[in-house]
Amino acid sequence: MEFVTLSNGVKMPLEGFGVFQVPEADVCEKAVLDAIETGYRLVDTAAAYFNEEAVGSAIKKCGVPREELFITTKLWIQDAGYENAKKAFETSLKKLGLDYLDLYLIHQPFGDYYGSWRAMEELYNEGKIRAIGVCNFYPERLADLCVNAKVVPMVNQVELHPFFAQGDALENMKNFGVQPEAWGPLAEGKHGIFTHPVLTEIGKKYDKTAAQVALRWNAQRGVVIIPKSTHIERMKENLNIWDFKLTDEEISAIAKLDLGHSEIVDHSSPETAKWLNGWKIHD
Ligand SMILES: NC(=O)c1ccc[n+]([C@@H]2O[C@H](COP(=O)([O-])OP(=O)(O)OC[C@H]3O[C@@H](n4cnc5c(N)ncnc54)[C@H](OP(=O)(O)O)[C@@H]3O)[C@@H](O)[C@H]2O)c1
C-alpha cells in the first residue's frame, strides 16, 4: 500500500474501502471484515450511510491494531452548525466505538458549514480527530473556505473517475494544499466502466481489468481512491493495482473519456441543494 502525506503530516493510505449503500448491519460488518482481511486499512463511512455501528463492530473484531487503521466518517447537513456538529461528532464516535477519528469530513457543501467547520477545528485542535476535511466542495466553495478557515481542510472528497476527471478542481486543491479523494472511483458502475473498450484494451497489456485501470489512473495522479464492493473477489481485484504503471500515452487515452460533467449528481444545481437539504437522517 502506498500512502500520501496530508498537509498536517498525517499519513493516509492511497486506497481505502467505501461502504455507501450497505445499510444492512450484517452485510456491512462482513464486508469491512473481508476488506481488512484483504489488506484495506482505510474505511470510509458516514452518519448518512446508517452503518457506523456495523463498521465499528468490524473494527472491534478485526484484530488489526487501531493505530494501523484509518477511519473516516462524515457530518450530515441536518447536523450542520457549531453546536450540532459537536453533538453529531460524539454520536458518530460512539456508534463507531472509537475514541478518536482519523478523518472527519463535512459531507455536503450545504447548511451552516462554517459553524460545523469551527467545531471541527476545535475537535482537531483537541486531538480528537487527526485530520479534517470536506466533500463535494467545488472550486469556488473550497477556495472560500480555505481563505477563511483557521485550519485549511486537509482533504476534499469529490466524484473522480475517468468519465469525470475534474482536472481544474484538482489543480485548485493542489494550490491550497488539499488532498483529493475520489468517491465513485468506479463511476458507481455507470457508463459501462467495467467493460469499457479503452480501459479494457489498456488493461490487457498488464493483465488487468478495466476497473483496475480506472483505479490505477486516479492513484497514479495522487488521488486517494475508496472503491466499494460487497464481493471479496472484487475487493481483491480493486486492491491489486500496485504492480503496474500506466504510460503517458495511456493516460492521454483515458483523458479523452472525460465527459466534463457528472452523470451521478450535479452539485451546482439548485434541485440538488433542495433535495440534499431535505434529506433527514434522524428526528
Ligand atoms: N462524499 C460523498 O458524497 C460520497 C458519495 C458517494 C460515495 N462516497 C464514498 O465513496 C465510496 C465509493 O463510491 P461508490 O460506492 O459510490 O461507488 P464505486 O466504488 O465507484 O462503485 C461501486 C459499485 O461498483 C461495483 N464494483 C466494485 N468493484 C467492482 C469490480 N471490480 N468489478 C465489477 N463491479 C465492481 C460494486 O458492486 P458490488 O458491491 O456488488 O461488488 C458497486 O455497485 C462509497 O462507498 C463511499 O464510501 C462518498
Q: Helix/strand/pairing class, anyone?
A: alpha/beta
What is the CATH superfamily? NADP-dependent oxidoreductase domain
Side-by-side strand order of the widest sheet: 3-4-5-6-7-8-9-10
The CATH class label is Alpha Beta
Domain count, please report it.
1
How many helices?
Answer: 11
Mean pLDDT: 98
CATH topology: the name is TIM Barrel
Low-confidence stretches: none
Describe the largest sheet.
Answer: 8 strands, parallel
Estimate percent helicity: 40-55%
Shape: globular
Ends distance: 41 Å
Which strand-content bin applies to the residues?
A: 5-15%
What binds here, in terms of ligands, is:
NADP nicotinamide-adenine-dinucleotide phosphate
Question: How many β-strands, per DSSP?
Answer: 10
Q: What does the radius of gyration come to?
A: 18 Å
Question: Which series of helices and strands comes N to C?
Answer: EEEHEHEHEHEHEHEHHEHHH
Q: Could you characterize the architecture of this molecule?
A:
The model has no long low-confidence stretch (mean pLDDT 98). The protein has helices at residues 25-38, 52-61, 82-96, 113-125, 139-148, 167-176, 197-206, 210-220, 232-239, 248-255, 270-277; strands spanning 3-5, 11-13, 17-18, 42-44, 70-75, 101-106, 129-135, 155-159, 179-183, 224-225. The strands form two sheets. It has an eight-stranded parallel beta sheet. It is 41% helix and 15% strand. The chain has 283 residues and is α/β, with parallel strands linked by helices. The chain has a single domain (3-277), classed as TIM Barrel. Bound molecules: NADP nicotinamide-adenine-dinucleotide phosphate.
